[in-house]
């Protein structure tokens, strides 16, 4: 599978990605999108989120610092995106940590037609009713039944389902991709998952409308691999989390699409 072509498409088309994200990562998510060649916008007012989501190429929803106002903004934006066929990415940050987060995530997934669901493996385990564990926003433990549960959920909801960690799993219910790129320093900075959730918006934002779910899954595989290859390059320049963080933007900006294909660690099952 050619992955680098998706990065080229993002740089060519510069998709507008509407983010309703959290207070911790707002700036770095916008910078990650700019570094990869996309166009970020953060908009929260109930008065404008519907309009913004309808002109965007993707809507990225992130539950990191929830308030009732943010939840309403997500619902209004989600409805507008659905009406216009704009793909929606959802990151249920910290689901399972509190009853409120679990309720919001469950309700949103029931009411909004999400195209891509991304969480760390602990959050995904909790969300799918398995024996996962989260501590605040960090994964503590995933369930070994996770890959099968993800496939079932993907089929039932017609969504791409992604669980990240040292190894990332992506499934559309038929095919599962196991991705081995990345670096432990990603777990040493806050927002590494949230930046990825924003970047998924850029990559699914260039999928031609009307494409099958498998094409959205491929774009997600390309997004994760591009990000994780950039992280591997950044780690080589870094002294620790601080310099790694800065180098990550530089490496995303300078990432060669051929290097993505050359370094990709992708295992496919069920194709
Ligand atoms: P957490 O809250 O546990 O940090 P998260 O939402 O930030 O979770 P992660 O699961 O940490 O999300 O994944 C974010 C990115 O970091 C992904 O691209 C993933 O592949 C990568 N990653 C996380 N941990 C590692 C690791 N130990 N080695 C390599 N890559 C990793
Ligand atoms: N608290 C609420 S959101 C957030 C923190 C620390 C950022 C979480 O980012 P990530 O990418 O899920 O680690
Ligand atoms: Mg993290
Ligand atoms: Mg997270």
Automatic annotation (TrEMBL):
Asked if the Swiss-Prot or TrEMBL record annotates the protein with the keyword ATP-binding, the reply is: yes
Keyword set for this entry? ATP-binding, Kinase, Magnesium, Metal-binding, Nucleotide-binding, Thiamine biosynthesis, Transferase
Q: Name one Pfam family in it.
A: HK
Which pathway does it take part in? Cofactor biosynthesis; thiamine diphosphate biosynthesis; 4-methyl-5-(2-phosphoethyl)-thiazole from 5-(2-hydroxyethyl)-4-methylthiazole: step 1/1
What is this enzyme's EC? 2.7.1.50
GO MF entries: hydroxyethylthiazole kinase activity
**Binding residues for substrate, per the UniProt record?**
42, 191
Q: Which cofactors are reported in the record for this sequence?
A: Mg(2+)
Write down the superkingdom of origin. Answer: Bacteria
Q: Which residues bind ATP?
A: 118, 164
From the UniProt record, list the reaction(s) this protein catalyses: 5-(2-hydroxyethyl)-4-methylthiazole + ATP = 4-methyl-5-(2-phosphooxyethyl)-thiazole + ADP + H(+)
Q: Which InterPro entries match?
A: Hyethyz_kinase, Ribokinase-like
Query: Could you confirm whether the keyword Iron-sulfur appears in this record?
Result: no
NCBIfam families found in the cross-reference section? PRK09355.1, thiM
Role of this protein: Catalyzes the phosphorylation of the hydroxyl group of 4-methyl-5-beta-hydroxyethylthiazole (THZ).
Q: Which family does it belong to?
A: Belongs to the Thz kinase family.
**Name of the protein described by the UniProt record:** Hydroxyethylthiazole kinase
**What does UniProt list as this organism's lineage?**
Bacteria, Bacillati, Bacillota, Bacilli, Bacillales
Q: Gene symbol?
A: thiM
């Amino acid at each position: 599978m050619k992955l680098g072509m998706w990065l080229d498409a993002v740089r060519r088309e510069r998709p507008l990605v509407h983010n309703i994200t959290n207070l911790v990562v707002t700036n770095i998510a916008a910078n990650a999108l700019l570094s990869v060649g996309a166009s970020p916008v953060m908009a929260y007012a109930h008065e404008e989120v519907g309009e913004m989501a309808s002109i965007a190429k993707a809507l990225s929803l992130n539950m990191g610092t929830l308030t009732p106002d943010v939840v309403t903004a997500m619902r209004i934006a989600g409805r507008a995106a659905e009406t216009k066929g704009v793909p929606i990415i959802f990151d249920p940050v910290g689901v399972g940590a509190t009853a409120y987060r679990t309720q919001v995530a469950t309700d949103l997934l029931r009411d909004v037609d999400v195209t891509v669901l991304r969480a760390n493996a602990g959050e995904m385990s909790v969300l799918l009713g398995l024996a996962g564990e989260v501590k605040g926003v960090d994964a503590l433990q995933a369930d070994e039944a996770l890959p099968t549960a993800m496939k079932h959920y993907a089929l039932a909801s017609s969504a791409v389902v992604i669980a990240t960690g040292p190894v990332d799993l992506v499934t559309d219910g038929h095919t599962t991709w196991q991705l081995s790129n990345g670096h432990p320093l990603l777990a040493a900075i806050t927002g590494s998952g949230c930046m990825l959730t924003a970047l998924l918006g850029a990559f699914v934002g260039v999928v031609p409308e009307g494409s099958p779910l498998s094409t959205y899954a491929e774009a997600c595989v390309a997004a994760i691999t591009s990000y994780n290859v950039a992280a591997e390059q950044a780690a080589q320049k870094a002294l620790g989390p601080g310099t790694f963080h800065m180098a990550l933007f530089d490496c995303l900006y300078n990432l060669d699409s051929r290097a993505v294909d050359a370094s990709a660690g992708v295992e496919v099952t069920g194709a």
